[in-house]
């Protein structure tokens, strides 16, 4: 592989790799914070506290 080809592949992978990771991040954030999923996460947040017996 010539140095020019290597540099072109490097620039392409850095640019589009960053775009790909940003798009994946946005999709995961939308999936997590979508209003219809709120009940699932509220239940998960309270589940460690629900079955706890307090003994002193």
**Number of DSSP helical runs:** 2
Specify the overall morphology.
elongated
Beta strand % = under 5%
Task: List the uncertain runs.
Answer: none
The residue-averaged pLDDT reads 86
Q: What can be said about the biggest beta sheet?
A: none
Helix- and strand-based class?
A: mainly alpha
Alpha-carbon distance between the two ends: 70 Å
Cα Rg: 22 Å
Sketch the topology as an H/E string, one letter per element: HH
Number of strands: 0
Query: Which assembly state applies to the chains in this document?
Result: single chain
Protein architecture, described:
With 56 residues, the chain is mainly α. It has helices at residues 3-33, 38-50. The model has no long low-confidence stretch (mean pLDDT 86).
Note the topology.
Elements: H1 3-33, H2 38-50
TL;DR?
The chain is mainly α and 56 residues long. It has helices spanning 3-33, 38-50.
Notable characteristics:
79% helix; mainly alpha; 2 helices; 56 residues; single chain
């Amino acid at each position: 592989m010539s140095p020019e080809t290597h540099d072109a592949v490097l620039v392409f992978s850095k640019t589009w790799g960053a775009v790909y990771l940003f798009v994946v991040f946005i999709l995961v954030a939308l999936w997590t914070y979508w209003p219809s999923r709120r009940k699932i996460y509220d239940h998960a947040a309270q589940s460690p506290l629900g079955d706890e017996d307090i003994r002193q």
